[in-house]
Amino acid sequence: MPEKLAIVRTVAELRHAVAAYRATGRTVGLVPTMGALHEGHVSLVEGALARGDVPVASIFVNPTQFGPNEDFAAYPRDEAGDFAKLEAAGCRIVFAPAKEEMYPVPMLTTVKVTGVTDGLCGPFRPGHFDGVATVVTKLLMMAMPDRGYFGEKDYQQLQVIKTMVRDLAMPIEIVGMPTVRESDGLAMSSRNRYLSAAERTTALQLYREMNTVAKTVRGGRSSCSEATAAASKALLAAGFDKVEYLTVVDAESLQPLDKVASPARVIAATRLGRTRLIDNIAVD
Ligand code: AMP
Asked: Who contacts 52 (Cβ-Cβ below 8 Å, separation ≥6)?
């Protein structure tokens, strides 16, 4: 039987629950999520367990990281299902605050990371990374973990958080965890629930095309711009409504590359019906 999961709703309760583990000499790993949990989220809890941390998850659909025309209201919510998955995975504390607990007074402070937010999703989602950096800072300050676990699925977000923690000297190690995929290769995402059956079939082409790009540009063999243009064209032909970007970037700075010489990622954001799908893979 998995040990019982403590469900806490307030910052005071969270700090109390974390302190009880710390008093026994344990380290703590925070897994921030927006809920609608799947195996990708569970893998982050497992990452914390593998490093000996007491896993603490948070579930909060953060309004400040959604644009006015984005899916905040429609975002899937399944608290009871999420708690069951967390308990089964071995998570020990879940922090599931109301909006009023996270934002009790109007915020006069924003954490803004520049550089790594300039390209990719940055221009398509104005204010998004400010919302993410600010809420993650709050969650880190509330839980004060030894480590924070984030998925490579949201690769730009991971670089934003690593940059923020480095620049602000937060005494927290950020651990990036590999993307968990469905058996056919589609990256798991809470937003995959929006896909119709036909769109679900089409969605798979994104991973296929990214792999073709990675194979083509590996070792500096071919120009990235030609390979990514061909892949974008193929996605539109397959039924994608829009390719916001599909590009090859330096794995750390996220600057676009035309010939691959350093560690690189193929990274993309697309639209398929009402769903925005993002994904990325390593080139090597
Ligand atoms: P979200 O609930 O979508 O905000 O995601 C919470 C965390 O889970 C983030 O660090 C994501 O990068 C991570 N995550 C989401 N999907 C996956 C996946 N398929 N594999 C690994 N991590 C993931």
From this structure: 26, 27
Calculate ∠ Cα 18-19-22, nearest 5°.
90
Q: Which atom of ligand 1 is nearest to the CA of 150?
A: 10
* Active site annotation includes 41: yes
Give, for all 284 residues of the chain, the pLDDT tens digit.
567 999 999 999 999 999 999 999 999 999 999 999 999 999 999 999 999 999 999 999 999 999 999 999 999 999 999 999 999 999 999 999 999 999 999 999 999 999 999 999 999 999 999 999 999 999 999 999 999 999 999 999 999 999 999 999 999 999 999 999 999 999 999 999 999 999 999 999 999 999 999 999 999 889 999 999 999 999 999 999 999 999 999 999 999 999 999 999 999 999 999 999 999 999 98
Question: Rounded to the nearest whole angstrom, what is the distance from the C-alpha of residue 226 to the centroid of ligand 1?
Answer: 30
The partner residues of 177 in beta bridges, in order of sequence, read 151
| 99, 29 contact by CB (below 8 A) | no
39, 42, 44, best to mutate for ligand 1 pocket (most atoms within 8 Å of CB): 44
Q: For residues 65 and 122, what is the distance between their CA atoms, to the nearest angstrom?
A: 12
